[in-house]
Amino acid sequence: MIRVGILGATGYTALELIKILLRHPDVEITTLTSRQEGNPHVAAIHPQLTGRLDLHLEESPPETVAARCDCVFSCLPHAASASLIMKMLESDVRVIDFSADYRLRDAETYEQWYGSKHPDPNRLGKVVYGLPELFRDQIPGAQLVANPGCYTSTSILALAPFLKKGIIETDDIIVDAKGGVSGAGRSPKLTTLYPECNESITAYSVGRHRHTPEIDQILKLATDCDVQVLFTPHLVPMDRGILCTIYARPIGQRGEDDWLDIARDFYEQSPFVRVIGHLPATKDVAGSNYFDMTVRVSRGRAIILACTDNLIKGASGVAVQNFNLMHGFDETTALL
Ligand SMILES: NC(=O)c1ccc[n+]([C@@H]2O[C@H](COP(=O)([O-])OP(=O)(O)OC[C@H]3O[C@@H](n4cnc5c(N)ncnc54)[C@H](OP(=O)(O)O)[C@@H]3O)[C@@H](O)[C@H]2O)c1
């Protein structure tokens, strides 16, 4: 049994993670932390877990959590996450970080986009990016894995096959993204209150969303292409789900079937990628670890459409994919 701890266990991603791990035959959840809820039974915070997990939350220092666990999932916000993780990594515990803290490759870019100094700058650039479809070989040996962002993984997986093949221009890529409200987490914010966001769609963080440099950096790493995507997210009044509509200029002439064949070849070994003929919809991936994508060609553009569940393939599902690869289990364990 692998002993697992979860930091920030009161949050949305943590709840989904617990539900997946309860299906895992080789996992024992030993520790759940909260900074401000005290010591309640987990079912008092997440009623869905009533009768499924008998554990109390606690506020334990990172060293105590590390001593009690073989692997820790950090479901904390950025900055808070790295400052605890760096202490845990002094032991040999393995860590999967949900936050953005270890995703970017350099401290300068982090400071520019996150507005504060990185707590652990020397580790940046050396941490494995946990997107198994692109970096599968690097994950098994890692002590620390940076779990991807939800908009980022959807955008990166949609673009990677075509950038790698050299069939889209690198300087004119537009990612028009829509996401459900759970993407903002459980902590109350004015913009995600029901009367503010219900029956309304609005763009946000236009030209300055923090997932922008992550998409650029990871696409460079995966495909060796220098890209600067124009990324615009929109808040949609639904609980969960991400749909990215991506516009790119094709190099050369090919029909839609050729585009789909290229994507299918690229993801041949990836059990959670579904290259489909019909248009993807968030409902079709809700609650699952699937990433659905297709391509249309019109008016001199390739239109790549892709969707995921932000809480599963965008967070907790891919984290368990990473966990499985790190510990030698089948990548799909507990996820199908
Ligand atoms: N939501 C998504 O779709 C999604 C997708 C991909 C990645 N992520 C990333 O995953 C992480 C968790 O996201 P989430 O949506 O689950 O967030 P969330 O629902 O807001 O939960 C985060 C938890 O972290 C704890 N926390 C908050 N601030 C803290 C601090 N300063 N120090 C220590 N603990 C703190 C809180 O627990 P207590 O108040 O009980 O301490 C909170 O329940 C974030 O880094 C997020 O960016 C989220």
Quick structural gist:
31% of the residues lie in helices and 19% in strands.
Topology, element by element:
Elements: E1 2-7, H1 12-21, E2 27-32, H2 42-45, H3 62-68, E3 71-74, H4 80-88, E4 94-97, H5 107-114, E5 128-129, H6 132-135, E6 144-146, H7 150-164, E7 174-179, H8 194-197, E8 202-203, H9 211-223, E9 230-235, E10 242-248, H10 256-266, E11 273-275, H11 282-285, E12 291-298, E13 301-308, H12 312-326
Parallel strand pairs: 1-2, 1-3, 3-4, 4-6, 5-6, 7-9, 11-12
Antiparallel strand pairs: 7-10, 8-9, 10-13, 12-13
Helix pairs in contact: 1-12, 3-4, 7-9
Seen as an oligomer or otherwise, the chain set is: single chain
* CATH architectural label of the largest domain: 2-Layer Sandwich
- Spatial strand sequence of the major β-sheet: 8-9-7-10-13-12-11
Strand content: 15-25%
| Average pLDDT over all residues | 97
Small-molecule binders here are:
NADP nicotinamide-adenine-dinucleotide phosphate
Q: What is the C-alpha radius of gyration, as a whole number of Å?
A: 19 Å
The ordered H/E elements are EHEHHEHEHEHEHEHEHEEHEHEEH
Overview of the molecule:
The chain is of the alpha/beta class. It starts with a strand and ends in a 10-residue tail after the last helix. The protein has helices at 12-21, 42-45, 62-68, 80-88, 107-114, 132-135, 150-164, 194-197, 211-223, 256-266, 282-285, 312-326; strands spanning 2-7, 27-32, 71-74, 94-97, 128-129, 144-146, 174-179, 202-203, 230-235, 242-248, 273-275, 291-298, 301-308. β5 (128-129), α6 and β6 (144-146) form a beta-alpha-beta unit. The protein is globular. The protein folds into 2 domains: 2-126, Rossmann fold, CATH 3.40.50.720; 151-309, Dihydrodipicolinate Reductase, domain 2. The strands form 2 sheets. A 7-stranded mixed sheet has the order 8-9-7-10-13-12-11. It has a 6-stranded parallel sheet with strand order 2-1-3-4-6-5, with helices on both faces. The relative contact order is 0.15. The protein has 12 helices and 13 strands. NADP nicotinamide-adenine-dinucleotide phosphate is lined by residues 8, 10-14, 34-37, 75-78, 80, 98-99, 149-150, 182-183, 185-187, 310-311, 314-315.
